[in-house]
Sequence to fold (221 residues):
Amino acid sequence: MARFKRRQLFVHPLQHWFVVTAVIYFACLLLVLYGIVFLPMVQSLDDPSVTWQERAQVASQFLDFNARVWPWLLVTFLGLLLHSIYVMHRIAGPLYRFTALFQAIGAGHIHLRAHLREHDYLHREARDFNAMLDRLEQRIDTLNLHCAAVTDAYEDVALLVRGKSPGHANAALAKLEEELHQFRTSIGAFTVRALPPPQEQQGIDSAAPGAMDSPANTKAA
Fold:
């Protein structure tokens, strides 16, 4: 099966919220740094009791501090921001996949499974989710078998009863037949595997276009 690759950087609203929060935290850090370090320097420059030699020394320290601190501070912030975006991408990507799976499974496609990239987070949750779908699919298969057995038994009994007592029995059989039809229709709404699960199960990209997002929308960076 082809390896899944995301081609979008932001695939979940959580990522936008995280970036905005990081920028707000950095702005608060700058305000605190300004109040502790830069504000005393600025106040000393406005003090009339300070001589011009001392003001020149403070101004030189102020400029030197700006030249040494601000570039490294900005580089550190950008590095932390990029690393945080990378980490959040490993979380938001699986959340995006789970959201698409929920919609597809809600439409009855029980055969789909969660397939995440190798370095994504939430692999344990994906395994638990797939195990739950496996058990659900097995139970639906069991219901299908019982439904087929009940239908066969009903047809055999209906042939005998209709030939001997066509009165009220026919009405009861007609009602039972309608209930069986609705039962088969309800079970048939779930799409399950007709064969034993292969070694490489079909992923979410194989879903019908109407049940899930198009491949162009489901792929992220």
Notes: The helical segments are 13-45, 52-106, 123-164, 168-188, 215-218. Residues 75 and 81 are 10 Å apart (CA to CA).
